[in-house]
Amino acid sequence: MRAETVAKEFPVVCVGGSAGGLDAYTRLLRHLPADMGVAIVIVNHLRTVATLLHEILPRYTKMPVELITERLLIEPNRVFIIPEQRDLHVLDGEFRLKPISKPRGWPDVITVFLRSLTQHWDGKLIAVIVSGYDGDGAAALCGIKEVGGVTIAQKLDTAAQPDMPESAIASGCIDSWIFIRKQNYFNKSHVTSSCL
Questions:
Q1: 18 belongs to the catalytic site
Q2: What are the extents of the domains in the chain?
Q3: Does residue 35 have an active-site annotation?
Q4: Of the four, 65, 109, 136, 150, which is 20 to 30 A from 118 by CA?
């Protein structure tokens, strides 16, 4: 089925993170229903190290988990993983991969993807920023809100590396916070209600 025939009106949830993000990803997926009707895209800002998330995360969700390839169709009730050394874009209901625009220094792949969503996706957008170094994603959060999207940050005292959620909060464009703790306290309503 081609992208042109698929409605692009279901929500896309971008979960952006880096160092310490794996714990957040697994706890989020463990608590989210498999039939929410959303596409979940995990954007882990690795530059050179190959990702293994597509092999690890199926243990924590009933949703199919796929490593993104060029022109892969975006579908609901699936989890998509960005590959390393690529910027991620969307166009015509498909993922598009480009060479990473910042080969040195901290990547900005989360920011790049969120900005592409605001330009090329018709459905609701939810941005979730979790544990990680630097401030990737923060620069695009106000743009998400401008198109009617929802922005969420991991609460700082539950993040292994609070740089990214702290930068997100400092942007002034965060709607709410989520707690992700080893004790498994997780308020999934922050995410699920945002998708309604």
A1: yes
A2: 3-195
A3: no
A4: 65
Please tell me which residue in 18, 131, 171, 194 is annotated as part of the active site. Answer: 18
Longest distance between any two alpha carbons in the chain, whole Å: 44
Region for 92 from its dihedrals, namely left if φ exceeds 0, alpha if ψ lies in -120 to 50, beta otherwise? left
Give tens-digit pLDDT for 112-150.
999 999 999 999 999 999 999 999 999 999 999 999 999
Which of 113, 110, 114, 103 is CA-nearest to residue 47? 103
Tell me the C-alpha distance between 88 and 100, whole Å: 9
Active-site residue, selected from the candidate residues 45, 116, 134, 163? 45
pTM (two decimals): 0.89
User: Which residue out of 136, 163, 167, 194 is catalytically annotated?
Assistant: 136
Matching CATH number, 3-195, of 3.40.50.1980, 3.40.50.180, 3.40.50.720, 1.50.10.20: 3.40.50.180
Q: How far, in Å, CA of 87 to CA of 111, rounded?
A: 10
Assess whether 120 carries a catalytic annotation. no
Q: Which residues does the chain have with pLDDT short of 70?
A: 1-7, 47-50, 103, 179-196
